[in-house]
Design a protein that fits this description.
Elements: H1 8-29, H2 36-48, E1 61-74, H3 76-80, H4 85-105, E2 109-114, E3 117-123, H5 131-153, E4 163-179, E5 184-189, H6 191-202, E6 208-211, H7 212-217, E7 223-224, E8 228-230, E9 239-247, E10 252-253, E11 264-277, E12 280-281, E13 286-294, E14 297-302, E15 311-318, E16 323-338, E17 341-350, H8 353-367
Parallel strand pairs: 4-6
Antiparallel strand pairs: 1-3, 1-4, 2-3, 4-5, 6-9, 7-9, 8-9, 9-10, 11-12, 11-13, 11-15, 13-14, 14-17, 15-16, 16-17
Helix pairs in contact: 1-2, 4-5
Length: 372
């Protein structure tokens, strides 16, 4: 195999990455990669950095087809406000150290750390269609399994358990050197990177969501849930996603850690409701405030006590989607008094198809930063 020739500006960071990866490999296995294996590693990193592995240097930017994995820790920022800094960083470093080992073990390249998130890239090998997507999916499953094991090891610790949502997408990105002489880094940019971030935002704790382009490359490799079409900011049409459930051929199943069936978003949304008794809607309209909302229910603040199992008819003003939902029925599934007011969890029991569609669109827009 020919040794990759890398432009001088690119050689140092790539060789530094190889050195760090070699350190991880040696620590895990007791030996370093050498010969052909080291050259293959160098070639992969050179390719992602925009260098041509066959020896001819090219511009500092190039288009690459890759699979992108974005993983984000759920609730981590809230944890930083209520726990000692040392404990928080110790846990973050331990977690990301383990995740980094798994990514490198699946021949992925860590693109960047972004606070409590990590982005990795998987490039395919010539003549093996979908190989990068399959490695990314296997990596995501192993990451979720490892995080569950980390939580078990820490059972009873002072810092709460960690949970992670993952989004995976495959497509063409622009790879290259970004920055200046003072600081520069190799990264990827483009619409597919943005889409991966949107996909990850929909994921629940312990969940892995994949795009249709990724699913198309590994449909026979992975077991997934039913397709779901979601609104994605900047896209004129709905985007189809699937939840990764297992990789049957490897005997691996994702450990789901979220009992909710949909994303939930914090809001301040006034609403009105009527009590329903013996299937009769009472005429008196009462008012409250929704504190968070999902596809199947809300957490609301009301002035009067509502016993468990109380039936209600709700009216919601979904201004973002220009829809007033007057046909939403719900029951009280939890209740607690907070600062002199009552907070109630309401589970939807009946909703028209139109209002259901508008409600889901409303939630999806809020997830992506639209103002309510």
């Amino acid at each position: 195999m020919h040794k990759p020739i890398i432009p001088a500006m690119k050689e140092l960071p790539i060789r530094d990455a190889v050195r760090r990866i070699q350190d991880v490999v040696a620590e895990a296995t007791g030996r370093r990669l050498n010969g052909e294996h080291e050259q293959r590693l160098l070639g992969v990193l050179a390719g992602l950095a925009g260098a041509r592995p066959n020896g001819a240097p090219q511009d500092y930017f190039s288009y690459r087809n890759v699979t992108i994995l974005l993983a984000d820790l759920r609730g981590f920022m809230a944890m930083t406000a209520s726990h000692p800094a040392g404990a928080v960083f110790e846990l973050l470093n331990r977690c990301f150290g383990r995740m980094s080992e798994i990514i490198v073990g699946h021949h992925g390249v860590i693109d960047k750390f972004m606070g409590d998130a990590i982005m990795a890239l998987f490039a395919g090998e010539p003549g093996v269609p979908g190989e990068d997507a399959r490695r990314a999916l296997h990596c995501a499953v192993d990451m979720q399994i490892a995080l569950e094991a980390l939580n078990r090891e820490r059972n009873g610790g002072s810092v709460p358990p960690l949970y992670m949502g993952v989004g995976i997408n495959t497509g063409v990105v622009l790879a290259g050197l970004v920055g200046s002489e003072l600081y520069s880094a190799y990264t990827v940019i483009g619409e597919e990177v943005n889409l991966t971030s949107r996909i990850e935002a929909f994921s629940l704790r312990g969940q892995v969501l994949i795009s249709e382009s990724t699913y198309g490359l590994c449909a026979g490799f992975a077991s997934t849930g039913e397709p779901m079409d979601v609104y994605v900011k900047g896209k004129s049409e709905r985007v189809r996603l699937r939840e990764l459930l297992a990789i049957p051929s490897l005997g691996k199943t994702l450990p789901r850690q979220e009992i909710r069936r949909s994303p939930r978003v914090a809001v301040t949304l006034p609403f009105s409701y009527h009590l329903v008794q013996n299937k009769i809607v009472k005429p008196a309209a009462l008012r409250g405030r929704i504190l968070d909302i999902g596809y199947y229910g809300v957490l609301a603040e009301v002035e009067q006590e509502l016993p468990l199992r109380t039936e209600l008819k709700l009216e919601l003003e979904l201004s973002l989607v220009e829809h007033r939902a007057r046909d939403v029925y719900a029951r009280v599934v939890k209740a607690a008094q907070v600062s002199g007011r009552w907070q109630v969890g309401l589970e939807f029991t009946s909703i028209s198809p139109e209002s259901n569609s508008k409600l889901q669109l409303f939630v999806q827009m809020l997830i992506q930063g639209h103002e309510s």
